[in-house]
Write a structure and sequence with these properties.
Bound molecules: NADP nicotinamide-adenine-dinucleotide phosphate
Shape: globular
Strand content: 5-15%
Number of domains: 1
Order of helices and strands: HEHEHEHE
Distance between the termini: 34 Å
CATH topology: Rossmann fold
CATH architecture: 3-Layer(aba) Sandwich
């Protein structure tokens, strides 16, 4: 399940830090992995990965929306950009139905299915929020040396984050609903 009081606590903390200003940029980064195969998976694992990777970020957006809307009005900017108001969902190419990278070697049902669902959530939000001045897109961070990515990953956190920040700074109207990578 999703911990709504915890999300609302975060909104209050951010709101009091910002005082009268809005929030320009919301990055949904938290996520969990699961290596379950068709043979090993059970419904509880499937549902708990969906709760964290899909429902959680959606509730976070819902609760932070008033602060993002405040930023749209406050910046005096037009169009869509991360310096006006944006929601960035950290996704993965493993959740792309179009690419289906290595799906036969690593089916990992809960992780890949939840990220595919998160990608659709990004598309739906982009369509709904673009007229309100809020940019929504998904980004693949690369394969990164974190607890999830492990030491075998080729990219350091610094390289991935530097790439992501460069991409975010370049985003415009044209990228509403897009799925880009760290490069
Ligand atoms: N690493 C990669 O190669 C790679 C590749 C593609 C995409 N991604 C995506 O990048 C994002 C970050 O992954 P990572 O590699 O940094 O993974 P990680 O090393 O496992 O870290 C995950 C982070 O998410 C937080 N988190 C997990 N469940 C949460 C929950 N229910 N509520 C709040 N926070 C929660 C964790 O907090 P705690 O430490 O407090 O548990 C931790 O800080 C994920 O969305 C992942 O799918 C990573």
């Amino acid at each position: 399940t999703v911990n709504l009081p915890s999300i609302r606590g975060a909104v209050r903390a951010v709101g009091s830090y910002l005082q009268d200003q809005g929030l320009n940029l919301l990055i949904n980064n938290a996520g969990i992995s699961s290596h379950a195969t068709l043979h090993s998976l059970d419904s509880q694992e499937m549902l708990s990965v969906f709760a964290t990777n899909v429902v959680g970020p959606l509730q976070v957006v819902k609760e932070f929306l008033p602060l993002l809307e405040k930023a749209v009005k406050g910046t005096g900017k037009k169009g869509l950009s991360c310096s006006r108001a944006a929601i960035i969902n950290v996704s993965t190419k493993l959740g792309s139905i179009g690419l289906c990278l290595g799906v036969s070697e690593a089916p990992t049902y809960p992780y890949r299915a939840s990220k595919a669902a998160q990608n659709m959530v990004t598309r739906c939000m982009a369509a709904e929020l673009q007229d309100k001045g809020i940019l929504c897109m998904a980004i693949h961070p690369g394969w990164v040396k974190t607890d999830m990515g492990t030491e075998k990953a080729p990219l350091s956190v610094e390289q991935s984050v530097r790439g992501i920040l460069t991409v975010l700074a370049s985003l415009s109207q044209d990228n509403s609903g897009a799925f880009l990578d760290w490069e």
